[in-house]
Amino acid sequence: MDNTLHIIGGGMAGSEAAWQAANAGVQVVIHEMRPKVETFAHRTGNLAEMVCSNSFRSDDDEQNAVGLLHWEMRAANGLIMGMADRHRLPAGGALAVDRDPFSESVTQALMDHPNVRVEYGEITELPTTGHWIIATGPLTSDKLGAAIQRETGSERLAFFDAIAPIVYADSIDMSVAWEQSRYDKGETEAERKAYINCPMTKPQYEAFIDAVLASDKTEFHEGETAGYFDGCLPIEVMAERGRETLRHGPMKPVGLTNANDPANKPYAVVQLRRDNALGTLYNIVGFQTKMKYGPQSSVFRMIPGLENANFARLGGIHRNTFLNSPTLLDDQMRLRSRPNIRFAGQVTGVEGYVESAAMGLLAGRLAAAEILGKPLQTAPQDTAMGALIHHITGGAEAKTFQPMNVNFGLFRPLDGLRGGRKGRKDRYKGYTDRAKEAFSQWLESQS
């Protein structure tokens, strides 16, 4: 068998897998269909292009499972985290990045690596020989998706990811809006003012909800059903669940004081997060939508401060394909029926940039170890990566399997620590301390 590692898909997972395997000394070929075969969501042919949010979410590695995953990926010399840190933008306690320079840097780093080459073109069938990782993400092509379906014998599983709109900063009325991170979170002034906030009175909020509910929505194709992931719900789906849902979700007014009118507490607040280093673009936080383009412009201009907003990109919606991994993959991320093929990224049933890249990191290291004749156990279950891989390859209930973000609910309990909300701080610190020790030992075992 040829010892080259072939990776289908150059997104977050594929790029990270290639980097890890190449650094281990394995020859890697990335097969990327873009730009020869385009998708509706991508704008470039760059690797690791960010098509939804520009945020890697919380960077707190002591009290947040996502931040812990950041820590583990940095400890493993992760390419995605390295470039995210290089192109970091102010975002309070979150890790947000300047998306275009980020993807350009990932692309350049892989192009410059002596063990990596990129071949452009679509792979439409499952390979029968060789070492492969399929990391095609949420926009797996129809032909490859059909090949996966034929092999697995299961129906193709899908839910819909919605994309939030992006606004030009100079079109936001700052006499109405103000800059502030929730609870003034952040160590620097830039971090504490990383978000632009647009306040709403109760009548304005009620009118906005009415307009969202009445707007024309994107129709699904015949045979498609909308099984949304709760962490990325379109705003109209949230509004349909109850008129107060948005006000207790992305539009919650807590932790914010209107700098233009401190005496009056907003009934609801729409937040916008910086989307590029220049500060010229802001995305509307949590406003993924399936509204049609025409209604989007008029509905979002009902938001105080956005009456004259110019949109660099309106929202959209796309299908996300993922495997029923508990039944199909082993703990090495290999397809049970074809163990020469591994899967990585969102297609395995994880949700989010960070989780996708982390599964790519694992798949790359596991594949490289196998190729080099040095079998490697997967990451320990008490680590963030280990908790994720354990969940998707056996810990989750196969009959109800749905995509999952990393969270402390996936971690094994710690003895002797208080449960409930009051014990949460100590418990989370216990989880992260235990994970860091286990992950460090796992890395040392590979040196």
From TrEMBL:
<dbReference type="GO" id="GO:0050660">
    <property type="term" value="F:flavin adenine dinucleotide binding"/>
</dbReference>
<dbReference type="GO" id="GO:0002098">
    <property type="term" value="P:tRNA wobble uridine modification"/>
</dbReference>
<keyword id="KW-0819">tRNA processing</keyword>
<dbReference type="GO" id="GO:0047151">
    <property type="term" value="F:tRNA (uracil(54)-C5)-methyltransferase activity, 5,10-methylenetetrahydrofolate-dependent"/>
</dbReference>
<dbReference type="InterPro" id="IPR036188">
    <property type="entry name" value="FAD/NAD-bd_sf"/>
</dbReference>
<keyword id="KW-0521">NADP</keyword>
<keyword id="KW-0274">FAD</keyword>
<dbReference type="Pfam" id="PF01134">
    <property type="entry name" value="GIDA"/>
</dbReference>
<keyword id="KW-0520">NAD</keyword>
<dbReference type="GO" id="GO:0030488">
    <property type="term" value="P:tRNA methylation"/>
</dbReference>
<keyword id="KW-0489">Methyltransferase</keyword>
<dbReference type="InterPro" id="IPR040131">
    <property type="entry name" value="MnmG_N"/>
</dbReference>
<protein>
    <recommendedName>
        <fullName>Methylenetetrahydrofolate--tRNA-(uracil-5-)-methyltransferase TrmFO</fullName>
        <ecNumber>2.1.1.74</ecNumber>
    </recommendedName>
</protein>
<feature type="domain" description="MnmG N-terminal">
    <location>
        <begin position="5"/>
        <end position="374"/>
    </location>
</feature>
<keyword id="KW-0285">Flavoprotein</keyword>
<comment type="function">
    <text>Catalyzes the folate-dependent formation of 5-methyl-uridine at position 54 (M-5-U54) in all tRNAs.</text>
</comment>
<dbReference type="GO" id="GO:0005829">
    <property type="term" value="C:cytosol"/>
</dbReference>
<keyword id="KW-0808">Transferase</keyword>
<comment type="similarity">
    <text>Belongs to the MnmG family. TrmFO subfamily.</text>
</comment>
<feature type="binding site">
    <location>
        <begin position="9"/>
        <end position="14"/>
    </location>
    <ligand>
        <name>FAD</name>
    </ligand>
</feature>
<dbReference type="InterPro" id="IPR004417">
    <property type="entry name" value="TrmFO"/>
</dbReference>
<keyword id="KW-0963">Cytoplasm</keyword>
<dbReference type="InterPro" id="IPR002218">
    <property type="entry name" value="MnmG-rel"/>
</dbReference>
